[in-house]
# Entry
Amino acid sequence: MTLIYVASSNKGKLADFAAAARKHGVDIRPLPGIEGIDAPEETGVTFEENARLKAEYYSRDVGGEILIADDSGLTVDALSGEPGVRSARYAEDAGIITNHPDAANNQLLLERTEGVPDSRRQCAFVCSIAAARNGKTLKTFNAEARGVLLRAAKGSNGFGYDPLFYFPELNKSFAEISREEKLRVSHRGKAFSLFLDWIDTNRLAH
Ligand code: IMP
# Structure
């Protein structure tokens, strides 16, 4: 088995990655003690920059093994790519203090796109995964899922902006599809699959 560390303590993300990785002989493990490590400031202006910055930073803690970190978010065409790299903190950046950031982010996004006509509501979930070793990026993997921003939440699965993201390919919102289905078509699932292909062709780790 190829051992790969992930800079995340998000159980859902780890489980999704682990399920896809198993078929490739890749053993996915969370970076031990990540909760106790001060997180680096995500100063990048692109998803790729932030993924690299996190992967390089945390890879120093796994003694020569490969570590991956991801960065993702929603980009709305009519808002020139917003919320973008600030997706998680969209409402917070607008001074909204809340214990329910997903709901506040969605609400703010709906408000800011109220005047955008149906024909101009295209958007994309974007994900960048960076693989690093000993503080250096080895490669990055970028993918997106294109969709249309809804005018009201639809579905109850998933997280974040999923209920507002209509995915024409499946004629459903991302909050109406199963986790397995989402992993197959999503930005994160596709970027991770590119990473697994790279591992398959290189078998860099041990
Ligand atoms: P992170 O980089 O994975 O922490 O994601 C940043 C933010 O982007 C999340 O807090 C969500 O608001 C949003 N986001 C990223 N991926 C998804 C997704 O698959 N569904 C819904 N929201 C997402």
